[in-house]
Amino acid sequence: MKWRRIALHFSTVTGLPILEPFIRLMAGEDPKEQLKGIAKYILVPAAAIALFLAFWSFSSRYVVANSVALPGPSQTFREGKQLFAEHFEQKRADALKVKEKRTEAILLVRDANRAEQQAAKASDSQKQILLANATKLRKRAVSAANYRPSSPPTFVDQIFNSLQTVMFGFIIATVIAVPVGILCGMSPWFNAAITPLIQIFKPVSPLAWLPLAMLVILSFSSEGEPWFPIAFLTSALTVCLCSLWPTLVNTTLGVASVDKDYLNVAKVLKLSSMQQLCKIILPASLPLMFAGMRISLGVGWMVLIAADMLAQNPGLGKFVWDEYQNNNEISFARIAFSVIIIGLIGLVLDRIMIFFRNLVSFGNPAPA
């Protein structure tokens, strides 16, 4: 059946093997085998999560330090719900304030027009007063129309800011790592020159990179106004410096391991170096390249939390640090909830990279 083949291919490419037993069950295949798959992908993980929650709830009764207890699952998820409620409440308040300011701007423009109409009929001395008043009213109208809420970022805002930061750093890392990796894979001499640098800098902690990244950003910002906030650029550069190595290494391996028969055929066909690169080397090395990007994105997401804490970039890391400074049970419940959110976002990012890797894989793509 065509739909079965398409659905199974979709579940494999997207890295969602959990869908496979349901697809096969709908297609009329052996129910016992498919029930085994459902138990493997749903029941067993659900039981493991239930055991973890039970252990967490049990531990929260006994883990106490400085009169602050470890928050249990119910308190953690209750505070998480409150964080999202605060976000929507603040957005509604901001939208209402913007609407009020726009209404105020319309009224001010109306008053300015009325003052100008009165000035047209008034004497010279009164005319100057009315025109000056109309000018003031128009300035206030422009200020009201351009009003932007200055509320502090909510938990949801910090999530999106963290995603923007990690994607910015990841893209920069990819732009650097892929060309360098291709050169390393194609030239043993270039690879020999770059390998010592890779081996030295790859294990460096993000906590060591961050002060240097901040120094670089500050030196460039001293020459003019930066396009992005300094804290954002510092976190993104730290993510870039820590996450480019897996992509670089995997790209080098992918290019260097291209089947020699492909290259021999290219020589027979008298393809130029650029044609060999675009038609043979890059397509053959894409699976390993995207596998490296997957690792890089995971590393970047882990590094980002520490970078946000130290650089005070308004992201999830700063949220965790600020809540820790409050040192109460509500704050620790919010930290526990943010840990869960960080893990879930990391899982989604990993699934996305698996999807892209499988799109460019030849033969049967790997489910994970």
From TrEMBL:
Record PROSITE patterns: ABC_TM1
Membrane topology label: Multi-pass membrane protein
Record has Amino-acid biosynthesis as a keyword: no
Superkingdom classification of source: Bacteria
InterPro entries per record: MetI-like (IPR000515), MetI-like_sf (IPR035906)
Gene3D superfamilies xref list: MetI-like
Chain segments annotated as transmembrane: 6-26, 38-58, 166-192, 204-221, 227-248, 280-311, 331-349
Record's GO cellular component terms: plasma membrane
Assigned keywords, A-Z: Cell membrane, Membrane, Transmembrane, Transmembrane helix, Transport
Cellular compartments annotated: Cell membrane
Gene Ontology BP, a term: transmembrane transport
Sequence ranges assigned to domain ABC transmembrane type-1 in this UniProt record: 159-353
Chief place where the protein resides: membrane
Family, as annotated: Belongs to the binding-protein-dependent transport system permease family.
UniProt protein name: Bicarbonate transport system permease protein CmpB
Organism: Rubripirellula obstinata
Name of the gene this protein is made from: cmpB
